[in-house]
């Protein structure tokens, strides 16, 4: 009962966070006051340099997002993986065809219904191992972002972001791993809690030895369906391009303390002003595909990423055109040749 309530609460929270940003990101000119209010809240870095610094924090505080998300994602991934290894093996070598995004899009799913069809024990096993898989993808993404914040980006002392934007970032990097693990997080954490309680009551000497077969720990991931591996390929494609685009952006500031900006070139900068945002959308689309697309919470997560980054890209694109008279005319904001 507690798990169902928490799931519903998380979905409502994502819906409340997503809808306002979707509205202001639509290709309709927003009301001036609303646009300025949202921009003041969402602006950061170079798009905020000419704005008031009231209620702002240094942009380098991005580091807090990734430390926190790495800790949370690691805890969820390890507890779910431990639960899957102890309770959800063996796993059949034949992948399940029902766990595909396509099946959900053509009506074979109840992702928008509060009444889910009960899954079989085998389907539930695959669901738990899929959760492990997508949490590992999230772990790879967050770890790289943490590394880049420490070693690649050199934030200007004047680069700041709104305090509400900072709180939204913390909320997002809390909600993202929880969204990915929500389908079985409660049972995995309950199992881990019971194991800890048993250890406390019995003591180490009376507990059975924990022997881990590393092949059995990894093998179930290989038995997942084509949907998971296609999602992983999409994720890797976006991940590698974001890595490259971030390296280009990080290399532009030769003097780490200077407030100087130049036009970036290379990789997807040939097509759009914010290829790192485009890559992030591709990354989360890969995670969505790998998840099987069976949970509305993950769809809300993806919608939030798309709407938020589209809005941020439009503002950055506008800033580039205002800042540089010779800015490439053929570049779009975030979608090549379109927008």
Overview of the structural elements:
The chain has one domain (1-92, 121-323). Helix 5 (121-151) runs antiparallel to helix 10 (275-291) and helix 9 (226-251) packs antiparallel against helix 10 (275-291). The chain is mainly alpha-helical. Helices cover 63% and strands 2% of the residues. The protein contains eleven helices and two strands. It is found in: Endomembrane system. Keywords: Membrane, Transmembrane, Transmembrane helix. It comes from Musa acuminata subsp. malaccensis.
Quick summary:
The chain has 339 residues and is an all-alpha fold.
Give the termini separation.
Answer: 45 Å
Structural class: mainly alpha
Proportion of helical residues:
55-70%
Number of domain modules: 1
- Mean pLDDT score, rounded? 77
Strand arrangement in the largest pleated sheet: 1-2
Radius of gyration: 22 Å
β-strand percent reads under 5%
Q: What gross morphology would you assign?
A: elongated
- Succession of helices and strands: HHEHHHEHHHHHH
The largest β sheet comes out as: 2 strands, antiparallel
Please, how many helices?
A: 11
Beta-strand segment tally: 2
Low-confidence stretches: 20-31, 33-38, 94-100, 104-117
């Amino acid at each position: 009962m507690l798990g169902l309530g928490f799931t519903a609460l998380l979905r409502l929270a994502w819906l409340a966070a997503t809808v306002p940003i979707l509205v202001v990101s639509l290709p309709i000119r927003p009301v001036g006051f609303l646009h300025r209010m949202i921009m003041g809240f969402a602006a950061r870095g170079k798009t905020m340099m000419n704005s008031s610094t009231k209620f702002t924090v240094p942009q380098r505080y991005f580091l807090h997002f990734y430390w926190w998300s790495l800790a949370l994602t690691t805890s969820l991934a390890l507890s779910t993986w431990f639960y899957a290894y102890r309770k959800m093996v063996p796993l059949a070598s034949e992948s399940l065809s029902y766990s595909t995004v396509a099946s959900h899009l053509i009506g074979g799913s109840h992702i928008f219904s509060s009444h889910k069809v009960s899954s079989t024990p085998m389907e539930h096993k695959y669901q738990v191992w899929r959760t492990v898989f997508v949490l590992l993808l999230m772990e790879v993404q967050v770890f790289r972002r943490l590394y880049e914040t420490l070693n690649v980006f050199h934030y200007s002392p004047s680069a700041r972001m709104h305090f509400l934007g900072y709180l939204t970032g913390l909320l997002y990097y809390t909600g993202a791993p929880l969204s990915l693990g929500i389908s079985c997080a409660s049972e995995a954490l309950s199992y881990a809690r019971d194991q800890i309680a048993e250890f406390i009551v019995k003591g180490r000497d009376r507990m059975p030895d924990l022997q881990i077969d590393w092949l059995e720990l990894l093998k179930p991931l290989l038995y997942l369906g084509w949907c998971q591996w296609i999602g992983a390929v999409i994720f890797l494609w976006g991940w590698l391009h974001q890595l490259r685009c971030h390296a280009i952006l990080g290399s532009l500031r030769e003097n780490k303390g200077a407030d100087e900006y130049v036009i970036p070139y290379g990789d997807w900068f040939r097509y759009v002003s914010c290829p790192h945002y485009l890559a992030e959308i591709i990354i989360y689309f890969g995670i969505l595909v790998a998840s099987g697309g069976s949970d509305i919470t993950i769809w809300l997560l993806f919608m939030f990423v798309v709407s938020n980054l589209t809005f941020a890209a439009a503002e950055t694109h506008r800033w580039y055109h205002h800042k540089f008279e010779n800015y490439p005319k053929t570049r779009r904001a975030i979608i090549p040749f379109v927008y």
